[in-house]
Amino acid sequence: MCAPVVVESVRRELSRRGFLTAVGAAGIAAAAAPGAAQEKPLRLPKGFRDVVDLTHTFSPRLPVFPSFSPVRIRQRFTIPKDGFFANEVTFDEHTGTHMDAPVHFIANGSTVDRIPADRFVAPLAVISIEPRAAKDADTLVTADDIAAWEKRWGRLSAGAFVAMHCGWDARIGAPDRFLNRDAKGTMHIPGFSEEAARFLARQRDIVGVGVDTLSLDAGAAPKFVAHLELLGAGKYGVELLANLARVPPAGATIVIGGPKHEGGSGGPVRAFALV
Questions:
Q1: Residue 101 has pLDDT above 80, yes or no
Q2: Is pLDDT at 261 greater than 60 in this prediction?
Q3: In 10 A of CB 163, how many CB atoms?
Q4: Residue 4's pLDDT band (boundaries 50, 70, 90)?
Q5: What is the pLDDT of residue 43?
Q6: What are the pLDDT digits (tens) for 14-27?
Q7: Which of 21, 54, 137, 221 lies at a C-alpha separation of 20 to 30 Å from 170?
């Protein structure tokens, strides 16, 4: 687990000159192979060896929470006709890999544009319940799971981001399996228990939590208890994370490109883990 002093050291390593050099090198490599995905890793800060993209591609095929509409992408301008290419993208704030700001559930909570930028770079703790979730879609992250993680990896660092990994991202291409609704329409999807959410919100100094499902709460939860505990304590959430299986339980750093539209309750993010 990275202590706050380590995160600060990483920030110093990412100097303006070093950052621009790395981005420039990546841009040159991409230009050399038009249309090809850039797979070579950037020159990373000292102590990290790889970047894991924790973000699902934003598309109309993504499963969405039943309250929201699917993403809509419409081509508006083309190079042959207009001299440039651009799309119109329409979506609800809580679509795709996205952030929940405190105001999403708390009337006087912070909006996305008021969350301090330094909370978007944090030591990443991944708590895996994948074996249980494979057998029980209603399983929850419990306080015992957090205690077991801390027994193995040490107390959660101040400023940590805690992610639940249940393996649900493997279902992303099958919306019906992802939503996993029964005959009455109730979703059966893992989440944080109220007890675990309360413990993290009140007993640990974290910045936020994440899940590889559509909600911090379990799909069958009658109330949004985890949301209310965590967002009510000023924490933020990130839902529909990807590739958490590629991230170690401790030692990685999460970097979240959060939305910043005025008064937003949330919005799509681009999240990465430095490992």
A1: yes
A2: yes
A3: 26
A4: very low
A5: 59
A6: 443 344 344 444 44
A7: 221
Q: Tell me the one-letter amino acid at 258.
A: G
Tell me the three-class secondary structure of the chain, residue by residue. CCCHHHHHHHHHHCCHHHHHHHHHHHHHHHHHCCCCCCCCCCCCCCCCCCEEECECCCCCCCCCCCCCCCCEEEEEECHHHHCCCEEEEECCCCCCCEEECHHHCCCCCCCHHHCCHHHHEEEEEEEECHHHHHHCCCCEECHHHHHHHHHHHCCCCCCCEEEEECCHHHHCCCHHHHHCECCCCCECCCEECHHHHHHHHHHCCCCEEEECCCCCCCCCCCCCHHHHHHHHCCCEEEECECCHHHCCCCCEEEEEECCCCCCCCEEECEEEEEC
What are 116's two structure tokens?
Answer: 């301090």
Assigned token pair, 131: 């074996």
Residues carrying an active site annotation: 104
CA distance 105 to 265: 9
Model confidence over 182-218: pLDDT tens digits? 999 999 999 999 999 999 999 999 999 999 999 999 9
Q: What is the pLDDT of residue 162?
A: 98
Q: Are 132 and 177 in contact (CB under 8 A)?
A: no
Predicted TM-score (pTM) above 0.90: no
Give pLDDT, residue 39. Answer: 55
Residue 163 token pair:
């992610």
